[in-house]
Every structure is written in structure tokens, then in C-alpha cells.
Amino acid sequence: MEEILKSLNLNSQNNGAWGAEEIPASSERNLTVHSPIDGKELGSVLCASNADYDVIVEQARKTFYEWRQLPAPRRGQIIREIGNQLRSKKQALGKLVTLEVGKVLAEGEGEIQEAIDIADFAVGLSRQLYGKTMHSERPAHRMYEQWHPLGVVGVITAFNFPAAVWAWNSMIAAVCGDVVVWKPSEKAPLTALAINKICRDVAASHGFPGLFSLVISDGPELGQRMAADQRLPLISATGSCRMGRSVGETVAKRLGRSLLELGGNNAMIILKDADLKLAVPSIVFGAVGTAGQRCTTTRRLIVEKGIEKELLSSLASAYKQLRIGNPLEQGVLVGPLIDKAAVLMYTNALDEIKKQGGEIVCGGEIVKGMPSDLYVKPTIVKAKKSMPIVKEEIFAPILYVITVEGLDEAIEVHNSVPQGLSSSIFTTSLQSAERFLSATGSDCGIANVNIGTSGAEIGGAFGGEKDTGGGRESGSDSWRQYMRRQTNTINWSNALPLAQGIKFDYSSS
Ligand code: UN1
């Protein structure tokens, strides 16, 4: 453990306030980080105070005034170096993710790979921040739009993807000419410190030490302060619907922009004609991966009548083979939940499920004899579509199986929840697949065919509708949200024609 920390420039006691210069964090609050794997202390962080935050934002603003003047392709070259640094430290960072949040090593490293991938994407993007050219209705006029940097972007992240989601935002924001102030989850501050240090050091070596700043705090106040801060034109926040609603309201009040990626309640529809050899492993990865703590986790299976028995028995036998244990060990696929509150959420949900008439097919209990009391059994529940709990996002490995008559009912059940992040259908029918992807099909931001709900690539826009918040991060044209659009019209004639054919000739009136 100590070696990993050392190799990533971390200490047992760390400073939680990093701007263009190291700001000795001045709050009295100390955040102690314990690994969910075995409860051992990993290190501690002195929290940033409001005053530290103010100094950091001022430094970030100064850096922004310089950074925005560097041509985007040159900004991209700095991001290339950052991507290379992340590559060279992928193993150590991946292990730290595992130690801090308990996801299995392959997923910990996969998360750093996601950060590397988005850095690569951002390098290419740095030469493609295209604006449109339009034909003006006036003779000898040229009209076009261009995209300018926004300013200091506030990024608030959750514990479950402590590196990748920040990277989605920050790599893109940086090539767009913005600078970033990051408030990570208080449950994963060490990964944030390590990754921010790596990126910050590269930026500092090019004369931009305030490009990536970090404020660590143990409560929601600093996030609220960021949401209310006029100096931050954009707040990108990932987390629960409750948190997002509060951030969204505060940002809207000051007419700022927010980019929200909130809860999911993702479903897979399995039709009778599905290839179960593909469906079963996809369901298992989607429902059990990251111990059910992804926003893209598969939480509902909507199964066409006739195959439910066969599917349930294949799933139950797959679940039996899952190794639950220390996520650092080879072969383990299910690690611990993040903390006691998460375990309580799991057990409370199970009580409620039983009350509402759900039938537990497998799992449904805390695993005994583990190095901490945070390990729970992945659970399958036979549920009815009328059970209210099915509409909630329980951030734990609980999978509801709901039987339906056919595709119409499947889509109706699918869309009947408040959230709208990710969705998928397993079918070999082209008609059914296309129907699911059509305007009368899935209402989610992500809709897949013969692929699960989780594990999206960085190249697409990531995010969802309804209570998921409507934001889009990562690939495609998500970059536009980190820039301001300017429409330019240039008159290169010797006359002054007005648009809409208006005459405004005061000399002849
Ligand atoms: C999240 O859980 O907030 O699609 C992000 C996925 C990952 C990202 C999840 N690439 O499952």
C-alpha cells in the first residue's frame, strides 16, 4: 500500500487544496480514508476551507486568461503528454482505485484506460473544434459561427468512477480552452489527488499550473458553493438525482449552465428470440459488475413470457459461480460495497422488496467471513411491474426480473421509471430491435441491441433523459457544452443592406 501511495506522490497525510500553487488546506477537518476491502486506513486528507476554495478559483481564473490564448492544437499536445503519463501509471492508479472504492482490479485499471482513451480523443478533438459556415441572405456578407472557451469549469464527481468521469470532463474542457476546479467524492479523495497531481504536474511544466485544481471536502457545502459561484460558468455534476436537482436549481438561479449525469434505472429487454448465450453473460456483467454501483448497472430485466424459467435458471447458476471477495485477488468478480450506508440501503431495500411481494430467487444477504462487513450477495428478485420499489435506483447488486406478454408491454414497462440513462434489448429480430431504437421505443440516452446497459465506450455521448438530468459527457459533440458559441457576420461590400429586407433610410424620410 505504502509503495503505491509513494509511487503516486501521496502521503499518509495529504493536503486537500490544490490550485496553481499548493495551498495548505486551512479547514480543521480531516478526512480519513478507509478501504472498503478490509477497513484498513489508507491515508487522510485535510479538507479545503471556503477561503482556500476562493484562492483556488482566483488562481484558476488567472490561468484561464493565459490558457485560452494557446491555440487549441497546442493545448492538445499537452493533453497528449497527460495521456502518456496516465498510460505509464495505469497499473498503480488502477490499484489505488481498487483499494479506495473496492471495484475489482480489471475494472480499476479499465477505469484508468477510460481516462487514457478520452485523453486520446481530446487530442484529436483539439484540431476539430469546428464551427459552421452559413450563406448570408445579404450580398457580399459572410456568416459563420465559432466556439470560444467558457472559463473555469466546476466538476463534481461521485465515488464509483473516481477517475474516468473527471477525465471525460477535464480532458475535453482543457482542449476547449477551459480550466477545471474539481470537487471529488469524499469517499474517493486519494484517487482524485493522485490523478490530479499527475495532470497538474504536466500542465505546470508548460507554464499552466492552475489548469487542473482540486478541492477536497467531507460534506456537500463546498459543492453547493461551487453551484452558486458566478465565476464558474459551467458545473458538471455526477451523482444522485437528489444531489443533481439541488445543484441544477442553484446553477439555474444564477443562469449558469449545468451538465448533469444522475441516477439510472437501466433495463434489458429479453425477447423470446434472443440468443441467451449472449444475453446471460451481458446480464451478469451489467447487474453485478462494480457490485451494482455503476450508474449504468442493469437493475431490471424485462423478459418475454415463455423464456423466464430457462433464463432464471441460467442466471441462478451463473450467480452461483461468481467469486465474491477481495477485489485485488485474481478471479474475484464481486468486491465490497463502498460503505456501511450502502449496505444498509441494500438490506433495507430487501425488506421493502419482500413487503411489496417480491420473491428472492438468489442472494439477498450479507456475506459472512469477509475481511470487512461490506460484502453483499448479488441478488435476483422475481418482481411485479406494480411494485413501487422497482422505480427507484438502489445502488447495490439487486436485479428485478419482470415478465411481460410481448414487446409493446416490455417497452411500456421499460419507460415507466423516472430515470432515463441506459437501456438494451436482446433479440434476433430486426423489426423488434429497430422498434426499440425508434422514437416509440426506449426513452433513454443510451439504447443498445445485443449489448448490455453498462460499459459504454468514450466515443459516444454519455448521459440520459428525465431524472438522469439531460447532460451529455465524453465523446461525440459533447465538447460544445464546454464552449460558448459566437455567430459572426462580416460585411465585405460597400453597402449596408439590412436583413429581412428592411429599409431604414432616414435621409429620404
Ligand atoms: C458511471 O457509472 O457514472 O458505461 C459511469 C459505463 C462506464 C461509465 C459509467 N463506461 O458503465
Task: Please tell me about this protein's structure.
This protein is an alpha/beta fold. It folds into two domains: 279 residues, Aldehyde Dehydrogenase, Chain A, domain 1; 192 residues, Aldehyde Dehydrogenase, Chain A, domain 2 (3-Layer(aba) Sandwich). Helices cover 36% and strands 21% of the residues. The longest helix is centred in the N-terminal third of the chain and has 21 residues. It is globular. The relative contact order is 0.13. The model has no long low-confidence stretch (mean pLDDT 97). Bound molecules: 2-aminohexanedioic acid. 2-aminohexanedioic acid binds next to loops.
User: Beta-strand level of the residues, as a percent range?
Assistant: 15-25%
Helix share bin: 25-40%
Q: Name the quaternary structure.
A: single chain
**Would you tell me the structural class of the helices and strands?**
alpha/beta
The second-level CATH architecture of the largest domain is 3-Layer(aba) Sandwich
Determine the CATH superfamily of the largest domain.
Aldehyde Dehydrogenase, Chain A, domain 1
Tell me the overall shape.
Answer: globular
User: How many strand segments?
Assistant: 23
- Overall pLDDT score: 97
Count of helical stretches: 14
Poorly predicted ranges (pLDDT <50, ≥5 residues)? none
Largest sheet: 7 strands, mixed
Spatial extent as radius of gyration:
25 Å
Task: State the distance separating the first and last CA atoms.
Answer: 84 Å
CATH class term of the largest domain: Alpha Beta
CATH domain topology of the largest domain: Aldehyde Dehydrogenase, Chain A, domain 1
Number of domains: 2
